[in-house]
């Protein structure tokens, strides 16, 4: 594609060279530059891409997209823009022929619930026969293809490339987690979303390189509602009016408040062996009884967000009910089928706060025993181990202490630190250093009505030891144990 075509919709100044040259690809990592590419000089937390402009030219870059002055040979096109991150989004959209225009696009922002809400929407759309791709914490998922990503919201180039792949794969919808950093750093620019969802707002990501204060954090989340046609808002959240104060979209609300468009009431927990969930009545724009296959009262809010967008898309009550009743989120209170009369689940809880949240939620189901299997990461602050040990000791009937990603530390040293935390409580515990052996111990000793949580790994499918990542998927370990392997 010609550089002039890639620059459509962008305000720029041509410093030197010719914009009618052919560009083979857009690159923002100088290590990946090849002959005939355009190099975009991004400014990151610690690295400024302008410092690598000369290196990019030496590797064959035909054009440089800059916001600061750089020196380059006369035959290299140099294009100056106000913000190279914003420009990257539009360059990428043009390169991949604006795939968002061929999809129903849904973006979700909020402190908590994004990953679960993405899964709920995807499941409902699947029940309606609508193939969807997703982008978020679990990576880029297109059908059976799973591409790992470094960030919840990848760089705009990866977002646009993924959407083009979705279109090519026959997807009709795309659901993305729009993190505050993703919004701040223009990763979802060049997309006018059909729907934007706000889940909730609480303290997170403050200080350091991410957000200077809570006001900026809130303002970044609010950006989504200037980038979408319809905003779907949790009206029960204290910050909901601040989120939509300067919005440019239509607004639909959900919550328990009687003023909402989609209103939940009469929520109650559902529990049986192999199933933990929640049930509620929906009124307002739709009337139905809803069962959600994810535990905890908070699941009602995620379900409301999902059904609000799907109902607005015209999805039937039957598909919404079926989708929410059968949804599962990999590694997030993910129930694994077992033959016994107990419940076994996998969860990503890998620090004291997330462990507190999941165990408190599961306590509400009044299990016979709540058993928590967990370890702690090596080469991380020891205080995390103490806190995790104390949290599990306080909230579990039995803690099964084992390995996690030990990295360059000895597993037994990590376990001793965890025991320091447990010793502050009256909690019972056993130590089984090998994780597969520990899972087998839990299964072999399960009693009717128990809830067993395998905490820490979640969606991860590896174990990191001495700098090497070995394949390890807990779902496979469970299947092997049940098969007697």
Describe this entry's structure for a reader.
The protein has 15 helices and 24 strands. With 485 residues, it is α/β, with parallel strands linked by helices. The protein has 3 domains: 3-95, MurE/MurF, N-terminal domain (Udp-n-acetylmuramoylalanyl-d-glutamate--2,6- Diaminopimelate Ligase, Chain: A, domain 1); 99-326, Mur-like, catalytic domain (UDP-N-acetylmuramoyl-L-alanine:D-glutamate ligase); 334-482, Mur ligase, C-terminal domain (Protein-Tyrosine Phosphatase, Chain A), CATH 3.90.190. It has an 11-stranded mixed sheet with strand order 9-8-7-10-6-11-12-13-14-15-16, sandwiched between helices. Helix 4 packs across helix 10. It is globular. The N and C termini lie far apart (55 Å). The relative contact order is 0.08. The model has no long low-confidence stretch (mean pLDDT 96).
What is the CATH architecture annotation of the largest domain? 3-Layer(aba) Sandwich
The CATH class assignment of the largest domain is: Alpha Beta
3D shape? globular
Q: Enumerate the strands of the largest sheet in spatial order, edge to edge or round the barrel.
A: 9-8-7-10-6-11-12-13-14-15-16
The major β-sheet equals: 11 strands, mixed
Q: Per DSSP, what share of the residues sits in E-state strands of 2 or more residues?
A: 15-25%
Content-based structural category: alpha/beta
Overall strand count? 24
How far is the first residue's CA from the last residue's CA?
Answer: 55 Å
CA-atom Rg in angstroms: 24 Å
Catalogue the unreliable spans.
none
Count of separate structural domains: 3
CATH topology of the largest domain: UDP-N-acetylmuramoyl-L-alanine:D-glutamate ligase
Q: What's the assembly state of these chains?
A: single chain
- Kindly state the mean pLDDT as a whole number? 96
Please give the count of helices.
15
State the share of residues found in helices, binned by percent. 25-40%
């Amino acid at each position: 594609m010609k550089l002039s075509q890639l620059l459509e919709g962008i305000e720029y100044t041509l410093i030197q060279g010719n914009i009618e040259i052919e560009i083979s690809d857009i690159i923002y990592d100088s290590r990946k530059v090849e002959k005939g590419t355009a190099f975009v000089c991004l400014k990151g937390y610690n690295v400024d891409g302008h410092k690598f402009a000369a290196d990019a030219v030496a590797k064959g870059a035909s054009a440089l997209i800059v916001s600061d002055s750089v020196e380059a040979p006369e035959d290299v096109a140099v294009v100056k823009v106000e913000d190279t991150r914003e420009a990257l989004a539009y360059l990428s959209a043009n390169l991949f022929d604006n795939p968002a225009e061929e999809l129903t696009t849904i973006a979700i922002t909020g402190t908590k619930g994004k990953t679960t809400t993405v899964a709920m929407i995807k499941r409902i759309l699947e029940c309606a026969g609508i193939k969807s791709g997703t982008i978020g914490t679990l990576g880029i998922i297109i059908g059976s293809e799973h591409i790992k990503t470094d960030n919840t919201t990848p760089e705009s180039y990866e977002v646009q490339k993924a959407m083009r792949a979705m279109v090519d794969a026959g997807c009709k919808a795309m659901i993305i987690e729009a993190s505050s950093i993703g919004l701040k750093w223009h990763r979802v620019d060049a997309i006018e979303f059909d729907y934007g969802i706000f889940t909730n707002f609480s303290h997170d990501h403050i200080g350091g390189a991410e957000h200077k204060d809570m006001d900026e954090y809130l303002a970044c989340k609010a950006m989504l509602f200037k980038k979408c046609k319809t905003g779907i808002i949790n009206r029960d959240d204290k910050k909901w009016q601040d989120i939509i104060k300067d919005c440019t979209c239509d607004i639909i609300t959900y919550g328990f408040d009687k003023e909402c468009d989609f209103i939940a009431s009469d929520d109650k927990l559902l529990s049986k062996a192999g199933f933990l969930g929640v049930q509620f009545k929906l009124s307002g724009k739709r009337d139905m009884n809803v069962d959600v296959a994810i535990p905890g009262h908070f699941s009602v809010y995620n379900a409301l967000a999902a059904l609000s967008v799907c109902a607005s898309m015209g999805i039937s009550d039957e598909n919404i009910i079926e989708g929410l009743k059968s949804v599962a989120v990999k590694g997030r209170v993910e129930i694994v089928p077992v033959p016994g009369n107990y419940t076994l689940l996998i969860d990503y809880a890998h620090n004291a706060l997330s462990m507190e949240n999941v165990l408190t939620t599961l306590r509400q189901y009044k299990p016979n025993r709540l058993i928590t299997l967990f370890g702690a990461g090596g080469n991380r602050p020891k205080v995390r181990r103490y806190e995790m040990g104390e949290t599990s000791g306080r909230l579990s009937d039995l803690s099964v202490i084992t390995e996690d990603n030990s990295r360059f530390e000895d597993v037994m040293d990590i376990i001793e630190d965890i025991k320091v935390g447990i010793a502050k409580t009256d909690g019972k515990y056993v130590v089984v250093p090998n994780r597969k052996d520990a899972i087998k111990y839990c299964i072999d000793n399960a009693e009717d009505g128990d809830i067993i949580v395998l905490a820490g790994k979640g969606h991860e499918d590896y174990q990191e030891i001495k700098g090497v990542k070995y394949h390890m998927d807990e779902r496979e370990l469970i299947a092997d144990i049940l098969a007697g392997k």
